[in-house]
Known about the structure:
By secondary structure, the chain is an all-alpha fold. The protein has 15 helices and 2 strands. The radius of gyration is 20 Å and the shape is globular. The protein has one domain (3-272, 279-290): Formate dehydrogenase/DMSO reductase fold (Up-down Bundle). Strands 1-2 form a two-stranded antiparallel sheet. The chain has helices at residues 3-30, 32-35, 39-49, 53-70, 72-81, 83-102, 109-139, 153-156, 159-183, 187-218, 221-242, 246-268, 285-288, 292-319, 326-334, and strands spanning 271-273, 283-284. Pfam families: Cyt_bd_oxida_II. It is a multi-pass membrane protein. This is Cytochrome bd-I ubiquinol oxidase subunit 2 apoprotein.
Amino acid sequence: xxxxxxxxxxxxxxxxxxxxxxxxxxxxxxxxxxxxxxxxxxxxxxxxxxxxxxxxxxxxxxxxxxxxxxxxxxxxxxxxxxxxxxxxxxxxxxxxxxxxxxxxxxxxxxxxxxxxxxxxxxxxxxxxxxxxxxxxxxxxxxxxxxxxxxxxxxxxxxxxxxxxxxxxxxxxxxxxxxxxxxxxxxxxxxxxxxxxxxxxxxxxxxxxxxxxxxxxxxxxxxxxxxxxxxxxxxxxxxxxxxxxxxxxxxxxxxxxxxxxxxxxxxxxxxxxxxxxxxxxxxxxxxxxxxxxxxxxxxxxxxxxxxxxxxxxxxxxxxxxxxxxxxxxxxxxxxx
Length: 335
């Protein structure tokens, strides 16, 4: 396989890892107003992702760095053209991270309430805008002959892209609520299961609409196959949640997100940034990639370090695998 093509799929894999892992973080954050009936409930929810949220976010850093090194033209066009949208994502992620660290620093209810809203908004904004960004990448945006984006922020907020954003928002929300059911116990676990059942129905409808729209506009054989896997996994996850099989439901939600992201990359291939105004201005894997030497060095680096990263992350999740309950929160408060 050509190294540029290989790195196209490695970048896809890195974004899959990011959306699967940080996706449920976003979902848990967005669920605070629905599942957190009091401060202890909200602390339970935050503690389900407390040990892992920052590790999950490193995936987007690795994905961005890989994009920069492997496809510098793609990186330049994407980060300059989508600058305001990506800046909003960055500000939201900063606000969310600050909230996790500072929420517990003072006992006043108003202090905690403000940081809770920062977590909610800081989770919802990236969940929405990542979908908007990827939908625009697949659909194509206006580029000039030098591959510079010549549209505006409002051009990115078109119906197809907004549907893509709503799809990722709902997918991450349901993914996070299923994770909350997996990691909690008692009443909050039951509330999470009921909420996942309700949000899952809406997620299935919206995600199916987006995938069908994408398929008819940009679909390939690989896209339709991956989209079918995503659809079946999403329905299976919803059914598993209804049976109280949280582990199965969570695993199938992860498969859903992974298959959906790979499907979008399959619809994009062999382009990396199609030009909607003139196909001659499109960025492709061939004209956007780095030199073969650079890609060779990156390949050996990834071969050595990626398994170590995956092993470390797996070990982290194993260490913090136990459920978080109100009793553990109360016990921690005493000490």
